[in-house]
Amino acid sequence: MPITHTFVSAKVDGPDATLVQPTDWNANHTGSSSVAVLAKTGAYTVVAADAGKLINATSGTWTLTLLAAATAADGFWIEVRNSGTGVITIDADAAETIDGATTVVLDARYDSVLLVCDGTGWHRQSSFAVDQQRVPVLAKTGAYTLTVADRGRLIDATSGTWSLTLPTAASAGDGFWFAVKAGSGAITIDPNGAELINGAATLELATGNEAIVVCSGTAWRTISRYATGLALAGSNTTEQTTTATTVVSIVTMAVTSIAAGTPILIVINWRKSAGAAAAVSIGLTLNTDEVNSGQTASTSTNQAESGTAVFVLGAREASYLRAMSGLGVTAAGALNTWRALADTPTAAITTVIIRGYTDSASVTLAIKDVRVYTLPTS
Fold this sequence. Notes:
This protein is mainly beta. Helix content is 3%, strand content 46%. It contains three helices and 31 strands.
């Protein structure tokens, strides 16, 4: 690229022709400055001869490895541009860093970065992102380990209950961030080894919840959390009945997998028929574990009644496996309560069964409009 310099002077030439004269200064001086372009389509390691070049990644997803900073020396620079549709990861040599991070990722077409060496590490002199508002989406349906190439991405957990494992905080580097959205199941964010997130070993996102997670270089934290409140995990709106005088399963329903750390709310509509002076009882089974074999829901008066029973379960963890309570009101205004008569399961809950019986075969117990909700974990 030719560069023309014009030197301007108000002075006139002097008598000594052996000296540089002002008219010489006024002359146009043409020099030349150009940037060589090195096109690449696959993994490449920068060499000393690439100083001052533009490395143009024209296609593919691959890694550009920098030469050792000591070899490059202070003042060495290159520009890297992603002209393709893949993801280009720029990886510093061995344990060296780029502004504190081991890698820089160009994940949008025409993103670019100018890297300068100081002899011991690398720095971003300038960078250009085509669309700073662009957040690439990576859909996942099962256990996944985040990589440094996922910087700035939304991990969309579209289904299932599973764990998202983080890379080491040191490899991610200070300022690394990503977003995650839990779809139809709970997602557990699990830092590497003994590292922490928000001061804890793991972070669970209930169904429908979202978070933006940021790395400090040594640990992880959320800077934004969105909880949807109650999330419907399953429902049954078809009336089921029984006249059994011993406990039986009345409504069996599959629910979205509910992790052990997620609180649960179960709402049940029930009714009993007239026919005898007898009460009806309602119980609860989770998966195959009968948590409550049946406690009284109605009066024993010979009359038709209806009501609602509400069960609340806290997080299921060691020493707290009976953290459940239930509440209902009879037609006479009496308060009925339920409690866990056996341990709740520690495994993810995928089946909820409403059980019950009547004190007389002449009385019908009906269950309808059962709804199971998960509560936000934070």
